[in-house]
Design brief:
Layout: E1 5-8, H1 12-23, E2 28-31, H2 35-45, E3 51-53, H3 57-62, E4 69-72, H4 78-87, E5 96-99, H5 105-117, E6 121-128, H6 130-136, E7 139-144, H7 146-159, E8 162-163, E9 166-167, H8 177-205, H9 211-222, H10 229-238, H11 262-273, H12 278-290, H13 293-302, H14 315-344, H15 350-356, H16 367-377, H17 388-410, H18 416-428, H19 435-446
Parallel strand pairs: 1-2, 1-4, 2-3, 4-5, 5-6
Antiparallel strand pairs: 6-7, 8-9
Bound molecules: NADP nicotinamide-adenine-dinucleotide phosphate.
Length: about 475
């Protein structure tokens, strides 16, 4: 009996995905670079599942039914190229490799082209939901050719999370579309996580609420319009006490946030494609600055911020501010995906993207239903803002968000994501920006020319004599 599918890379994601696939009735062959990890996995986690270990690449490939379908769940970057290089000598035309890691989309495009020359099919697939999602049903974002997708569609549909709108998997689009969408998913995730963290900071420092009280509020919010995976886990985190000290664990965790790159890549892509993802970029910088712990400690002793305190805020106003931040984080991400789809000819259906984010993934939330409704009303509504319902939604929350921002500012509490969302909104909804002065400055020092509001054409002024 040959295995239906193979998986390489038995770290947290790989192990759980294998168990998920096997529990759906498929036979899975597994391989990991370090044999010890494979042995431990088989001994400790595999019970009655149909999982076949292999300890050489050759045995692994030979244990698969043809055309072979191999999922890579290895560290992104060079390890993916290394694994492809090791597999290639044993593969035949028509076999399929699926990269389920967080690869950079440009790498996926390159690998697609290289493998097409060898007759090997390739999919770049975003997998969201962490280890729990991988085991119980992730959100899957595969991209590449339709032929390749057709080979594994049934398996992917079977293992994906399910909502009332179907399995959280769709053919996302051509080329690196799947990895691009997963990358932006993570960019949105950065922005929402940072927004929640800023509201938490304001609650503890501005309103003097205890961690437990914040946990209760987050729990309440999770039953309302902020219902989402990230709100749910944040409420649980607030209630988690350290076994050793009995204190809330979150209070004992060092305030230095790590990153693996997808937030940074989203921002880089946004800069390349010209999409103003203010809060996504600010959230990456928030993690960067968090890393300067010693510098922050030193400077915090030097600077005493005697600011005039703004009016305090209510819990309801905080909820509204966070809700607006969620909405605007999705807005930035969907716009970025649309722009990429146009530029790279991905052919992405944005409604499908929103639908497959409804279950399994880290950014799943009740708000996605509202966004789907807005996009269904008008497919051109890429920022969601061109709609009366969106206008009403924003207007009902804007005053609270500004109050929250002012309160945070007056306490010198940084709130880059909340402010990034507000600046994104204000910039997009302002007729007259001061870019006229920027243009004049550019023309002054570099003869870059400018346009005028009162007549067509391109103009330049000799602002100062050259000699
Ligand atoms: N963790 C998450 O929540 C999450 C969520 C979504 C997506 N992802 C993505 O999914 C992928 C797997 O993530 P992970 O957290 O499970 O594991 P990981 O820590 O990113 O990677 C570890 C795995 O990669 C293998 N590996 C590393 N270098 C290799 C090389 N040069 N050749 C062959 N294999 C190599 C390791 O094998 P050895 O045992 O031999 O070291 C191990 O199986 C990553 O791309 C990650 O970004 C992760």
């Amino acid at each position: 009996m040959k295995a239906d599918v193979g998986l390489v890379g038995l770290a947290v994601m790989g192990q759980n995905l294998v168990l998920n696939i096997a529990r759906k009735g498929y036979t899975v062959a597994v391989y990991n670079r370090t044999a010890e990890r494979t042995k431990r996995f088989i001994e400790e986690r595999v019970k009655s599942e149909k999982i076949v270990p292999a300890y050489s690449i050759e045995d692994f490939v030979n244990s698969l039914s043809k055309p072979r379908k191999i999922i890579l769940m290895v560290k992104a970057g060079k390890p993916v190229d290394d694994m492809i290089g090791e597999l290639l000598p044993y593969l035949e035309k028509g076999d399929l490799i699926i990269d389920g890691g967080n690869s950079h989309y440009a790498d996926t495009d390159r690998r697609l082209k290289e493998l097409a020359k060898e007759g090997i099919l390739y999919l770049g697939m975003g997998v969201s939901g962490g280890e729990y999602g991988a085991l119980h049903g992730p959100s899957l974002m595969p991209g590449g050719t339709r032929d390749a997708y057709a080979l594994v569609e049934r398996i992917l549909m079977d293992i994906a999370a399910r909502t009332e709108d179907g399995p959280c998997c769709t053919y996302v689009g051509d080329g690196s579309a799947g990895h691009f969408v997963k990358m932006v998913h993570n960019g949105i995730e950065y922005s929402i996580m940072q927004s929640i963290a800023e509201i938490y900071d304001l609650m503890r420092k501005g309103l003097n609420l205890s961690t437990e009280q914040i946990g209760s509020i987050f729990e309440d919010w999770n039953n309302g319009e902020l219902s989402s995976f990230l709100m749910e886990i944040s409420s649980k985190i607030m209630r988690w006490n350290d076994e050793e000290t009995g204190k809330p664990l979150v209070e004992l965790i060092l305030d230095k946030a790590e990153q693996k790159g997808t937030g940074k890549w989203s921002t880089q892509a946004a800069l390349d494609l010209g999409v103003p993802t203010f809060s996504m970029a600010a959230s990456v910088f928030a993690r960067v600055v968090s890393y300067y712990k010693e510098e922050r400690q030193r400077l915090s002793k030097l600077y005493h911020k005697h600011l005039t305190l703004s009016e305090s805020v209510t819990i309801e106003e905080l909820e509204k501010a966070l809700s607006l931040a969620y909405f605007l984080s999705y807005s930035q991400g969907i716009w970025l995906i649309h722009e990429a789809s146009k530029t790279f000819n991905y052919g992405i259906d944005l409604l499908e993207v929103l639908r497959i984010w409804k279950g399994g993934c880290i950014i799943r939330s009740k708000m996605l239903d509202f966004l789907i409704e807005l996009l269904k009303d008008s497919q051109d509504n890429l920022t969601f803002l061109n709609d009366e319902k969106a206008q009403k939604f924003v207007e009902e929350r804007l005053d609270s968000a500004v109050k929250v921002s002012n309160f945070a500012r007056s306490l010198a509490i940084p709130s880059p994501a909340i402010n990034g969302c507000l600046d994104y909104l204000f910039s997009l909804t302002t007729d007259s920006l001061p870019a006229n002065l920027i243009q004049a400055q550019r023309d002054f020092f570099g003869a870059h020319t400018f346009e005028r509001i009162d007549k067509p054409g391109t103009f330049h002024v000799e602002w100062q004599p050259l000699d």
